[in-house]
């Protein structure tokens, strides 16, 4: 019989809690406080009238400290809530809806001092990623995402470009965290033109998703998606660009790209399709196009992937097994081509589609612990488990 490390819930009912995506820091710099969102429901998508509480668990005392509220959140990525890289011991950043705009908010969790960044109705200052150094952030039109990719956008505001297929005024925005100035780095029209205005995109609405800066914040990656007319499935391409939008590159071009993570400033690990080699995790050099398959016999399905801070391990999860409904949390040891199972957690059948609860595992800052969201006890809560001995 397999024995796994015992996870501990760091949030409790009767309310429901989760953090969100797999590529954002939920622990503060000291390792004492862990962020999450709190709501009174778990069985439906958020609406424009719903409000989530932003809080943090004091891991020493167990106290749950409520900090603020937000009206811009979803089940998959939360409110893009995480500790501000420029001051990770006391400041957090998250998205909210204020008036007729989605914005991002910087909050000092101890003094309560708050700074609202921008207020563009397009959504350019609602963050989709913040660089590891905290110098710049990326933003997307979350109203368009709500329409095109339910579960990843926010309810409550219309897409101002809803009647445009490839708008020149919408795309990936970049914001300077010091000055709060923002600019459109790569527009949807620029991508459409870059591709030579392909026929299968001519009558299809384009949208961008999943932005991620490289470690030094010199370049960013993003996914461009559209559903060709008459087809049920969308196509996805990965692009990278300089922080000002220059030097646009088509990195993954075979129509299927999903979860990814930067290994360093030029290599990207992504679940994708390359030529006739099939769907795998590939480590791709975004400058040269060179690639290699990673974990061919072990990482056999699309999962959330993130490198440990020491670069030796890849933290992953799985979707529910079709027979057992168990999600597996595991670590892939890169140099040894082996996996270590951290745990298996039930995903009740009711939690599917937009309201599913992916584990979305996240490393602690010292790689010694893993945080994940789960419903294996029947209600959505946040858990922490010790990293196993990986040798």
What does this structure look like?
The protein is built from 2 helices and 28 strands. The chain is mostly beta strands and 391 residues long. The protein folds into 3 domains: 1-29 and 304-391, no CATH class; 71-253, no CATH class; 266-302, no CATH class. The strands form 7 sheets. A 4-stranded antiparallel beta sheet has the order 1-28-27-26, with no helix packed on it. Strands 2-3-4-5 form a 4-stranded antiparallel beta sheet, with no helix packed on it. It is globular and about 55 Å long.
Question: Rg to the nearest angstrom?
Answer: 20 Å
* Uncertain ranges: none
Secondary-structure element pattern, one letter each: EEEEEEEEEEEHEEHEEEEEEEEEEEEEEE
Question: What is the helix content?
Answer: under 10%
Number of helices: 2
Q: Biggest β-sheet, characterized? A: 4 strands, antiparallel
Strand order of the largest sheet: 1-28-27-26
Q: Class by helix and strand content? A: mainly beta
In short:
The protein has helices at 142-148, 188-194; strands at 8-9, 16-18, 33-39, 52-58, 64-70, 82-83, 91-98, 101-108, 114-117, 127-130, 136-139, 171-176, 182-187, 207-213, 219-226, 235-242, 249-252, 257-262, 267-273, 279-285, 291-294, 305-307, 313-317, 326-333, 338-346, 362-363, 369-374, 381-386. By secondary structure, the chain is mainly beta. A hairpin with a 5-residue loop joins strand 10 and strand 11.
